[in-house]
Structures are given as C-alpha cells and as structure tokens.
Amino acid sequence: MGHLSRPHQRFAGKSQASGFTLLELMVVAAILSLLVALVAPNLLGRSDDAKVAVAKTQLRNIVSALDLYKLDNGHYPSTAQGLQALVTRPSGYPEARNWKQGGYLPALPQDPWQSEYLYISPGAQGEYDLLSLGADGREGGEGDAADISSRAL
After folding, report:
1. What is the DSSP letter of 26?
2. End-to-end CA distance of the chain
3. Confidence class of residue 8 from pLDDT cuts 50, 70 and 90?
4. What is 45-96 written as a DSSP string?
5. How far apart are CA 119 and CA 125, in angstroms?
6. Which of 8-12, 40-44, 85-89, 120-124 has the highest mean pLDDT?
7. Is the distance from CB of 121 to CB of 76 less than 8 angstroms?
8. Where is this region: Disordered (predicted)?
9. Edge-to-edge strands of the sheet including 129-132?
C-alpha cells in the first residue's frame, strides 16, 4: 500500500527534457526550406494548367445547359439571345416556348481570366460555337493563351 500513498515517486527517477535545441530548429528549418525550393516551382507552374481545366469544366456545364435548352425548345438560343438565355427567359426570335422555369444555369460563369465565353449560333461548323479566348483574350494563341473550344472537349 506504500506505493499508493506516494504516486509521485514513480517518476522521480526519470528526467524529462522538453524543448528543442537551436541546432535542431535550424536543421528543421533547412529541411523545410529545401522542400519549399523543390516543390514551389512545380506548384506555381500548375496554376495555368488549373485555369485551363476550370475553363473546360465550365464549357462542359454550358454545353449541357445548351443541350437541355434545345431539348425543351427545339433549337439553341440565337447569337443575339446569347448565353443569357440559359439564365433568364429570352425574348426575340427564335421564341423559347418551353423555357424551363428557373433557367438552365443559376448564373453565367466568366472564364478563369475574367472574360465572357464567346457564343455564336449558328456557328461556322454547325449548331453553335462556344469558346474561351484564353489568357490573352484574343483569338488564337499558344499555351494558356490558346482558345479553348467546346468542340475540343
């Protein structure tokens, strides 16, 4: 019963050191710096790729909404009616007789470079053309400045 009356004696023989030495902290800082130096260039170069991926996803969503619009109304919105016809009931020709209450998109997205998507109906090669002009906002370009078309998805 003696060991129960003095519970603090169980730990009396052990010495507990807490904290880190300056050398240990410097080693950890050096390792972290090395990791940042190796990983940061890869992450920074990926932001352009991420924006292109976001634009493609948004284009797919708009294409789906346009297809639903066509199923309900028998045609795609005209260029004059634009993509806004997916959010609010369009006026003008062709008439949207069976336009879905609430619309086909909650709002029109801008591309990742804060520009509007370009919509032309009828398009040069068929029903419509839908694209983002990329980072430079101009037709053509390379890399993240290249146009991203719904036809290439």
Report:
1. H
2. 79
3. low
4. HHHHHHHHHHHHHHHHHHHHHHHHHHHHHSSPPPTTT-GGGGTS---SSSP-
5. 13
6. 85-89
7. yes
8. 133-153
9. 118-120, 129-132, 148-149
Q: How far apart are CA 59 and CA 51, in angstroms?
A: 12
In the numeric block, which tokens belong to residue 145?
A: 């400045």
pTM comes to 0.71
Question: In terms of pLDDT, which residue wins out, 81 or 48?
Answer: 81
CB distance 78 to 93 below 8 Å: yes
- CB under 8 Å to 131, separation ≥6 — which residues? 59, 117, 118, 147, 148, 149, 150
DSSP secondary structure, 99-113, as one string: PPTT-SSSSPPPPTT
Q: Give me 103's structure tokens.
A: 């619309």
Rounded to whole angstroms, how far apart are CA atoms 119 and 66? 11
Please count the residues of the chain.
153
Beta bridge partners of 128: none
The helix (H) or strand (E) run that includes residue 148 is strand 148-149
CA separation for the pair 136, 145 (Å, rounded): 5
Question: Rounded CA gap, 117 and 66, in Å?
Answer: 13
